Amino acid sequence: MYSEDFDEQVAALNSAPETIAALIRDLFDEDLSRAPSDGTFSIVETMCHLRDLEIEGYTIRINRILNEAHPVLADFDGAKLAAERDYRSQDAREALLDFAEARRRNVFTLKSITPEQRELQGTLEGTGDVSLGRLIQMMCEHDEGHIEDVDRLCRLSQLTIEDPNRI
């Protein structure tokens, strides 16, 4: 992986919480917790998912790849955790702050790794062997998908905000 690609990916990871914060800034709590009719995560569920995956998934995976010889990395069942932890009852903005702090720590770690460390590998359950560089790419792809989801939900909420019958 070229250094500039890696640097761009780390910059994208660093900016994701701020991008999401800007998207949800003007929404009401009811907009954040409104469940989409298609069964996908609401905004609050997405914030909790990002927080928990960052802390319990990515942080652990990054550290294990850096500190262990070819570790086996656990899968992360986001839908199961959402139900078990009742994400819909949580505070979206608080979850976003926790996600941002965990992401800040991970970005700090990633900025200090060498090109050789980017090639270190682990085996991710359900995926197979992944290098640290590939894990970073997967994180970026995951962020992009959820940013698109949040943007879509925000646009739907804007239609509701503009509804003259909304109190």
3D architecture notes:
The structure is a single chain. The protein is mainly alpha-helical and 167 residues long. It has a single domain (3-161), classed as Four Helix Bundle (Hemerythrin (Met), subunit A), CATH 1.20.120. Helices cover 68% and strands 6% of the residues. The chain contains 7 helices and 3 strands; from the N terminus they run H-H-H-E-H-H-H-E-E-H. A 3-stranded mixed beta sheet has the order 1-2-3. Strand 2 and strand 3 (128-131) form a beta hairpin. Helix 1 runs parallel beside helix 7 and helix 3 (43-67) packs parallel to helix 5. The longest helix is centred in the C-terminal third of the chain and has 30 residues, at 132-161. The protein is globular and about 50 Å long. The N and C termini lie far apart (52 Å).
Topology (elements, then pairings):
Elements: H1 3-24, H2 29-33, H3 43-67, E1 72-73, H4 78-84, H5 92-111, H6 115-118, E2 121-124, E3 128-131, H7 132-161
Parallel strand pairs: 1-2
Antiparallel strand pairs: 2-3
Q: How would a crystallographer describe the biggest sheet? A: 3 strands, mixed
| Whole-number count of domains | 1
> Which structural class is indicated by helix and strand composition?
mainly alpha
- Please report the total strand number as a whole number: 3
Name of the top-level CATH class: Mainly Alpha
Global Rg: 17 Å
Percent in helix: 55-70%
- The average pLDDT score comes to 93
Strand proportion, as a percent range, falls in: 5-15%
Q: Could you spell the SSE succession in H and E letters? A: HHHEHHHEEH
- Poorly predicted regions are 161-167
Envelope shape: globular
How far is it from the N-terminal to the C-terminal residue, by CA? 52 Å
Sheet with most strands: strand arrangement:
1-2-3
The CATH superfamily is known as dinb family like domain
Number of helices: 7
| CATH architecture verdict | Up-down Bundle
Q: What is the fold-level CATH name, i.e. the topology?
A: Four Helix Bundle (Hemerythrin (Met), subunit A)
